[in-house]
Write a structure and sequence with these properties.
With 382 residues, this protein is of the alpha+beta class. Helix content is 39%, strand content 22%. The longest helix has 36 residues, at 51-86.
């Protein structure tokens, strides 16, 4: 154990200076409760405020769990081998009066003919399975799928086309449909939006389109790869300030099994999806995300996930293939932390999130009607 780690007074400053072995040693001491009480308190504070550190600890816990299971299995195999080596099979057979069965005698006398017949039968079965597509289905293993949508065949709306013809501004560049797309939702009435980082990855330019078909040029003011979050700002001169935002971010943990819904753009017009929260962790036990049983497709990434009262509890970012009802959403508290961590010189101004929710007393249809004015299609050009 490095003496520098053992004696250190932990802080965000010296934590960043730690080598990889020192960091792993510190994490293991934390997991084994080997830190002093002041050190443990400080480390928990750092873990809560540092998403990257929290992710490293979670990954190390899973690694240690895997090693423990592997050691248990190897020990069990060794025990079985030791027992087997101590047994004299011939002596046991003699003591029990076991004689060779007729099946074994038949095999010894006719094994060549039986082998040929078995080979023909196996070949017939394998051929049948191949032509019925069994092996293709078995090879399609479940994996994570980020929900960015290809826009090669997307048609511009009539409103957007008329706007391009009649206005000599930056939106005229949007005659082509774009390369990829997703969803984003508004953070401030002046045109700040949040979406999934993988939606705009590799973009030369990014535009957003509202429910009426009006498109606006944006710039990226902040990204957070750990949370898969990107903050966009509308810079188009034709954009007008929106009405006050009707929803707020939920600070507390959502409840397992509670009803949730989302709006997004898996096609040209906005699509409503309804489901429930099915797990407190995301794909591969990702602690930054929820798992939700909700219908989502390519283009839903970046869409808001809301509870019955219209509070934002997360942001859709992907789903698990070959598994029904396994979509994933970044948790609202991590979205809020990412937004709060935006440097002032990067954003140019401080993003203040709305703290008052005005959708709690509305029915679902009224909530959707109000919400869709603040959910935009994200179009990526590269």
């Amino acid at each position: 154990m490095p003496a520098t780690v053992k004696k250190a007074v932990f802080s965000a400053v010296n934590f960043k200076k730690m080598t990889e072995p020192e960091l792993l040693d510190l994490i293991e001491r934390h997991l084994n409760n080997a830190l002093s009480t002041p050190e443990q308190v400080e480390f928990e504070r750092m873990r809560k405020n540092d998403l990257q550190l929290n992710k490293r600890i979670t990954e190390h816990q899973q690694f240690l769990k895997y090693l423990s299971g592997l050691n248990d299995r190897l020990a069990f195999e060794k025990k079985l081998n030791d027992i087997h080596n101590e047994i004299d099979i011939d002596e046991v057979k003699t003591a029990l009066g076991i004689r060779e069965s007729k099946i074994i005698t038949l095999w010894r006398n006719h094994h060549s003919k039986i082998s040929v017949a078995a080979s023909i039968a196996i070949f017939a079965v394998m051929t049948t399975l191949f032509f019925t597509g069994y092996f293709n289905n078995r090879n399609q293993q479940s994996h994570y799928n980020a929900l960015r949508r290809e826009l090669g065949n997307v048609k511009r709306s009539q409103t957007a086309l008329i706007r391009d013809i009649n206005n000599n501004n930056s939106s005229k560049q949007l005659i082509s449909p774009g390369s990829f797309g997703g969803t984003g939702f508004v953070l401030t009435a002046t045109g700040d939006l949040v979406t999934a980082l993988h939606v705009i990855s590799g973009a030369d330019s990014v535009y957003v389109q509202d429910a009426s078909g009006n498109s606006y040029k944006t710039k990226t003011v902040y990204t957070n790869p750990d949370c898969d979050v990107a903050i966009l700002r509308i810079v188009d001169t034709t954009f007008k300030t929106l009405s006050p935002i009707p929803y707020a971010f939920k600070k507390s943990k959502a409840d397992l099994g509670e009803d949730v819904f989302t709006l997004g753009y898996p096609k040209d017009s906005v699509v409503f999806g309804r489901g429930y929260l099915s797990s407190f962790t995301g794909f591969d036990n990702d602690s930054l995300a929820y798992q939700v049983a909700i219908p989502v497709n390519e283009g839903n990434s970046g869409g808001p996930l809301l509870d019955n009262f219209g509070n934002i509890i997360g942001m859709i970012k992907g789903k698990q293939t070959q598994v029904d009802g396994a979509a994933f959403a970044t948790k609202s508290n991590y979205l809020m932390k990412a937004i709060q961590n935006i440097p002032a010189d990067s954003a140019g101004k401080k993003i203040i999130l709305n703290s008052k929710n005005n959708m709690g007393k509305l029915n679902r249809s009224q909530q959707i009607k109000k919400l869709q004015n603040y959910v935009f299609m994200v179009k990526v050009y590269n």
